[in-house]
Amino acid sequence: MSVELVPVLASGTLEGLYATIEGAIRTATGPVGLLLIGVYSFLIAFVLPLPSEIVLAPASHMNLGLPTEANVALIVLVSGLGKAAGSVFAFHIGQEAKQSGPVIRFVRRSRFDIVSWSEKKTVELAQKYGYVGMALALSVPGFPDTISIYAFSVLETDYYRFAAATFAGSVGRLVVTIAGFASVTALL
User: Residue 103: CB partners within 8 Å, gap ≥ 6?
Assistant: First the structure.
């Protein structure tokens, strides 16, 4: 695997760590690169507030001996499975958290308005459309998955449907991203 690591900033900031992780994903190659994409997708489901779309970056240079289209399909599959596995982990944490009043109070008092807005929108989608709503929410490119996954995890109870909805949403997001990129490229 060839990975160019962007150095973590001297001050040790989160931005430096995020840049390092994103750099590793952008330059990932070979089977180890696929593993890295799977681990990254697992982590963004419950802890890393990073974009999931970045996993598509190494598709043209993955060095798997496959055409680029097959690399893309394999990356989408690995990323979807990684995110589904990470969402089950987040789901378990959410099930524990809904038993804990202090955790819920802390999240509600958070200084980030996006948390309360996202939670509200996610709850609305879950109540109206169930797991299909969750998959749709996760299909929106650029929106943090972690917030939606945790909001749904507090509301829902079925691990298998939760994982399936997360997989569908993850694949949907990458397909929307690919289609959007293809549309823009066709215009140029």
Answer: 97
